[in-house]
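Postdoc handover notes: sequence design on the structure in folder B. Input tokens:
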């Protein structure tokens, strides 16, 4: 991933051509050298007027002393997204980390980790990586479901400047640099979910996008449970576009402007 003019591009990556809360939770970034094996931070910020307390030209500057820029010319940063379908077991977590190491991935957005923990956001340090998770929730049968997060290499962790949770399905992660970078990790309700739940999710996602300053490089790493197909495009993977696919396409078209381009991809290196 280069920089230069890339600040004018906004990238939405999906694992598969793949009820929000009005409150934000902003968590202070711990010093990467001081992380224990499992640290939970739970500083809550409620701001009804600004979805992102760190937004603005001077935003995301908290705790940036000594942090290195994420995006640099001639510096490669690889990002990806993956629906893990649980990493509660140590073996599943280690398998994922091994894959990240083999593919040289620095930033991995994860969905469906199914780990329920106290406090909104948990930092876990493992050899070479830091796992940041937003707690999963329990369904009517008390089974753990959902849960999103991000895994950062040691290189990416050095650039981390802030983490903000919006509801259960969106996480904003900010990085220092010139340009600064913001990553939104997102997990959409399934296509079988109610209209109200899906509409609430997309309203919340729009607010997350709007909270990121225009001059930031933005990546959205998510599982949108969306399918695209047919119409005027030949050789599509699916025969038709489902409801989530239409909503995702509408979002991209809505946010397009003369100064920004949104790129939808299953894999972009």
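Designed sequence:
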């Amino acid at each position: 991933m280069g920089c230069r003019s890339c600040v004018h591009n906004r990238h939405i990556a999906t694992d598969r051509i793949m009820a929000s809360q009005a409150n934000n939770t902003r968590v202070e970034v711990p010093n990467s050298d001081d992380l224990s094996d499992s640290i939970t931070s739970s500083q809550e910020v409620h701001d009804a007027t600004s979805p992102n307390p760190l937004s603005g030209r001077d935003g995301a500057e908290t705790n940036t002393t000594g942090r290195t820029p994420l995006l640099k010319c001639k510096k490669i940063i690889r990002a990806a997204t993956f629906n893990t379908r649980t990493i509660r077991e140590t073996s599943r977590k280690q398998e994922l980390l091994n894959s990240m190491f083999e593919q040289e991935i620095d930033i991995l957005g994860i969905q469906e980790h199914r780990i329920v923990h106290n406090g909104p956001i948990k930092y876990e340090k493992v050899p070479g990586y830091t796992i940041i998770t937003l707690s999963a929730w329990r369904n009517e049968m008390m089974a753990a479901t959902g849960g999103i997060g991000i895994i950062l290499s040691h290189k990416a962790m050095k650039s981390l400047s802030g983490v903000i949770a919006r509801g259960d399905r969106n996480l904003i992660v900010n990085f220092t640099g010139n340009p600064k970078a913001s990553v939104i990790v997102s997990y959409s309700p399934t296509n079988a979910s109610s209209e109200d739940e899906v509409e609430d999710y997309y309203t919340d996602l729009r607010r997350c996008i709007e909270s990121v300053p225009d001059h930031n490089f933005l990546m959205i790493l998510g599982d949108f449970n969306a399918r695209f197909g047919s119409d005027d495009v030949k050789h599509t993977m699916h025969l038709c576009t489902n409801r989530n696919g239409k909503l995702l396409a509408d979002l991209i078209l809505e946010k397009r402007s003369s100064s920004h381009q949104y790129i939808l991809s299953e894999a972009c290196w």
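Context for whoever picks this up: Residues 195-211 form the longest helix (17 residues). Don't rerun without checking with the PI first.
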